[in-house]
Structures are given as C-alpha cells and as structure tokens.
Amino acid sequence: MLAGLLGEADVVAYPSLGEGFGLPVLEAMACGAAVLTTRRLSLPEVGGDAVAYTEPDPGAIAVRLRELCADPGERRRLGAAARARAALFDWRACARVHVASYAAAVGS
C-alpha cells in the first residue's frame, strides 16, 4: 500500500529539520517518486542529486512545490534518478558495514 501511495504521488514532500538517516525519503525514492526535501543532516547523503531541495520554511516549500507540480518532465527525471539511487542502498551492504565496524571495535 505504501509503495502505491508514494509511487503514484506527483511529489513526495518531506521538508525535515533533522533526520538520523532519512528512511522516509529513501522509501519514496525506491518507489520512483519525485521527492522534495531539505539539505539537513543526512538527507543530502541519501538523496544526492536524485531529489529536489528546499529551505524548510513555508514560503520556500510552496514555491518549490509549485515549480515541481508545474514540470512533469522534471518530476519524471527525479523519479527515475531516485529509483536508481535508492537501488544503491542495500540492507545486506548495511549489515556488512555494521559487522565490520563491530569486528574492528572488538579487535581494538
């Protein structure tokens, strides 16, 4: 159900002020949604150049949303880029990095 909602949205707006990782942004990206978010904390690391960015104030969010809603070509481009970038985030790779970090911590 979530994939259908996110994937069918014209834009998924997630103007966060602070994120630990940005899983909601990554989930929307994996569904091929055009995402609008902020450049706070980890969000640029997750979104890279596959999402649109805005400042986290109502006026800036409204302007950027209007721009994206008026530009279906940009939304398609962002959606395709988002899906490709999201594929780079893999739970197995995440687990390998964690295991290696734990092993290094135990070994030192």
Short description:
With 108 residues, the chain is mainly α. It is built from six helices and three strands.
Characterize the structure shown.
The chain is mostly helical and 108 residues long. The chain has one domain: Glycogen Phosphorylase B (Rossmann fold). The chain has 6 helices and 3 strands. α2 links the parallel β1 and β2. α2 packs across α5.
List keywords for this structure.
108 residues, 6 helices, three-stranded parallel sheet, Rossmann fold, elongated, single chain, mainly alpha
Strand content: 5-15%
Number of distinct helices:
6
**CATH arch. level architecture:** 3-Layer(aba) Sandwich
The CATH fourth-level homologous superfamily: Glycogen Phosphorylase B
Report the uncertain regions: none
Q: What profile does the largest beta sheet have?
A: 3 strands, parallel
What is the CATH class designation?
Alpha Beta
What multimeric state do the chains show? single chain
Mean pLDDT: 93
Q: How many separate structural domains?
A: 1
Sheet/helix structural class? mainly alpha
Radius of gyration: 16 Å
SSE pattern, N- to C-terminal: HEHEHEHHH
How are the elements arranged and paired?
Elements: H1 2-8, E1 12-14, H2 23-30, E2 35-37, H3 43-47, E3 52-53, H4 58-69, H5 72-86, H6 91-107
Parallel strand pairs: 1-2, 2-3
